[in-house]
Design goal:
Keywords: Hydrolase. InterPro entries: AB_hydrolase_fold, Dienelactn_hydro, Dienelactone_hydrolase-like, TAT_signal. The structure is a single chain. By secondary structure, the protein is of the alpha/beta class. About 30% of the residues lie in helices and about 20% in strands. It has one domain: Alpha/Beta hydrolase fold, catalytic domain (Rossmann fold, 3-Layer(aba) Sandwich). Strand 1 and strand 2 form a beta hairpin. The longest helix is centred in the middle third of the chain and has 17 residues. The radius of gyration is 17 Å and the shape is globular. The termini are far apart.
Length: about 300
């Protein structure tokens, strides 16, 4: 198996969860119509839907080099100096769950932006139904390019009236890994929140250092939210990361939800665990407030 289709630990965690029955799930047609991804499996009929009342939302194009990167944004209407929070998506692309999270952050007062940094392959990830086909795209993304795309996203939000001096990042699954990577890269990031982000990478020449290897280089405080029942990211690995950060005197906190599987915040999937997801969201909000991202 080539590194392009290697099952990273985040993918192992999400592929081993299957809803017990189809009851309570949308038909594939309804899920696609609602804007959800195909590859993540059945979509819960009770997926959270956040309205746009009091918000300005829309699609944008962010200049990266000579190209235009698609993005989705949400911000409080009329608020020109809202803090900027980048939303780093899972491997499934810029689909409805990620857009909804963006709106939830805007309701908290943020100018939230979800960039579609896999756009260069010319493939809409939300329309891919097989995980292996997704992996050939997302595993081929060089970290250097990813970090540059995130810098461009922060700069774009600042140019649109957001307050980029109060910059945060939140990410889920592969996006959780992105949070750790960006916290080691950006000198302007105030805080990050990583939901079940991979900590150790398989060998990939495009990913020079895994989050664990970057522990000594962390520049911003990160909150790690993990599931004790995650089959891809063992609790022992989370403890190892915690120890590496402490040893390097880096600011980080972890909360492990003992019964929660990988993807416990993904309210559109069978992996969703309401209690853990709601508590984790409160922890994330408090973290962003503590480090001056949110007011």
């Amino acid at each position: 198996m080539s590194f392009e289709t290697t099952m990273t630990s985040d993918v192992v965690g999400l592929t081993k969860i299957a809803p017990v029955s189809r009851r309570g799930f949308m038909s594939a047609t309804a899920a696609v119509a609602a804007g959800y991804t195909l590859a993540a499996g059945p979509v819960r009929a009770e997926a959270i839907a956040t309205d746009t009342n009091g918000l300005q939302v829309g699609d944008a194009r962010i200049k990266v080099g000579s190209e235009q990167m698609p993005a989705y944004f949400a911000r409080p209407a009329g608020n020109t100096k809202a803090p900027v929070i980048i939303v780093a998506m899972e491997i499934f692309g810029l689909h409805e769950y990620i857009k909804d999270v963006t709106r939830r952050l805007a309701k908290l007062g943020a100018f939230a932006v979800a960039p579609d940094y896999y756009f260069r392959k010319g493939t809409d990830l939300t329309k891919i139904s097989e995980i292996k086909d997704l992996l050939s795209v997302v595993n081929a993304k060089p970290d250097a390019e990813l970090l540059s795309d995130l810098d461009a996203t922060a700069a774009w939000a600042g140019s649109q009236g957001g307050d980029a001096t109060r910059l945060g990042i939140i990410g889920f699954c592969r996006g959780g890994r992105t949070v750790w990577e960006y916290a080691a890269h950006s000198g302007t990031l105030k805080a990050g929140v990583a939901f079940y982000g991979t900590l150790v990478d398989p060998a990939n020449p495009l990913w020079p250092k895994s989050p664990m290897q970057l522990a000594p280089e962390m520049k911003a405080p990160v909150l790690g939210l993990y599931g004790g029942a995650d089959t891809g990211i063992p609790v022992a690995q989370v403890e190892q990361m915690k120890a590496a950060l402490a040893e390097n005197k880096k600011t980080a906190e972890f909360k492990i939800y003992p019964e929660a599987p990988h993807g416990f915040h993904a309210d559109y999937r069978g992996s969703y665990r309401k209690d853990a997801a709601e508590d984790a969201w409160k922890q994330a909000e408090a973290w962003f407030k503590k480090y001056g991202v949110l007011s």
